[in-house]
Specification:
The protein is α+β, with helices and mostly antiparallel strands and 184 residues long. It contains 3 helices and 8 strands, in the order H-E-E-E-E-E-E-E-H-E-H. The chain has a 5-stranded antiparallel sheet, sandwiched between helices. Strands 4-5-8 form a 3-stranded antiparallel sheet. The longest helix is centred in the first third of the chain and has 16 residues. Bound molecules: nickel (II) ion (NI).
């Protein structure tokens, strides 16, 4: 339908808690999902959350087969997830680089749960439940944080591991590739 403008960090709407979707399989919900998918693909993102295009509903999209920004990462199933819930399956955490379409040009190291189960529904209201680990688990945690008004820099504990892509790549710091600009 349309590639939408992505709100940038500093926009107050990115800090709001999004509302659950309560009506499924509606033209409005399908249009929102299509806009999210179109915008994510236009930006080569690994994921996108509705608040990033200014819509305060609990809807995320993520997934890719081969992402030019993340050439070394395994594919993540293309998914539209509404009203998601995440449960950590162990206390194990992993540190990894993330980026975000709302924080362009930058990357930072964030600790995330290594193994999660996530559930929710698709736009028709059909239940989805999966287990994920690694980059897949990271992308889901990153996207779902957007629904609670959390951007990845708010999760960072060492701001020395935060910087511009170009500088990090030149320094050899960016050994593993990141999230929603992936990721974002
Ligand atoms: Ni993001």
């Amino acid at each position: 339908m349309a590639v939408r403008k992505i709100l940038l960090m500093g926009h107050p709407r990115l800090l709001e808690v999004a509302r659950p979707v309560d009506r499924f399989d509606t033209p409005e919900l399908h249009a929102l999902v299509q806009d999210l998918l179109d915008t994510m693909r236009a930006e080569d993102g690994a994921g996108l959350a509705a608040p990033q295009i200014g819509v305060g509903l609990r809807v995320v999209v993520f997934g890719f087969e081969a992402n030019p920004r993340y050439p070394e990462e395994d594919a993540v199933p293309r998914t539209v997830l509404v009203n998601p819930v995440i449960e950590a399956l162990s206390d194990e955490r992993e540190e990894g680089w993330e980026g975000c379409l709302s924080v362009p040009g930058l990357r930072g190291v964030v600790s995330r749960y290594a193994h999660i189960r996530y559930s929710g529904v698709d736009p028709q209201g059909t239940a989805i439940q999966r287990e994920a680990h690694g980059f897949h688990a990271r992308v889901v945690q990153h996207e779902c944080d957007h629904l609670d008004g959390i951007l990845y820099p708010q999760r960072m504990t060492d701001l020395r591991l935060f910087g511009y892509n170009e500088a990090l790549e030149a320094s050899g710091h960016l050994t593993a590739m990141p999230c929603d600009t992936v990721a974002e």
